[in-house]
Amino acid sequence: MPIEKGEPWGEELHGEVPGDVIRCSDDASLAEAVWSRLDGEDGALPLFGIDAGDLSTTLGGSGSGRLVLPMDLCVARLDGGEAMPFVAHLIAHRRWWHGEAAAVMNAAWLGEWYLGPRAHPNDGLVDVTLGALDVRQRWEARRRAPSASHLPHPDLSVTRRSSWSHRFDRATMVELDGHRVGSHHDVSVTVMPDAFRVLN
Q1: Which residue has the higher pLDDT, 27 or 3?
Q2: Any idea what the Cα angle at residue 61 is, between residues 35 and 146, rounded to 5°?
Q3: Is the pTM of this model over 0.85?
């Protein structure tokens, strides 16, 4: 069950660390590792560990602790294509962030940018920031992004959703967990609550 505000999150691991923990090097490899095991015969997934990336930064851990945290998995469909998983973020923007752009955050961080200050990777929601800024505003937003002080902004809408879809007027480059997956018009995202567990 997704975490509620004010409730404790996760549980302490008792006994030995299981030998089948799947270690992942970054956000994208974690998403793929979880996705590839979701259709297992018994439906049970092993524990996962993540060594680096924006989800790891959000969790504030090295991935080598003893706290077991339930996590949401996000699934994107681009122009009606096949489902593609991500754990940290979907970012859609054109060159130099010109025109309409979107940041769909399950994690709080995109590198040094604090783009999802209210995002939590187990609340069943993604934080979506959508809008278009002029050149001066983009420069200022870039300067303010490390502290999240670029928000609120009159030209940016911020919503929290369990699912989200949008059509861009022009084909827009989409990145899932830092990897480019081509330019698209139609983008949709669905959150799968409590899809897997991370040892942190």
Answers
A1: 27
A2: 95
A3: yes
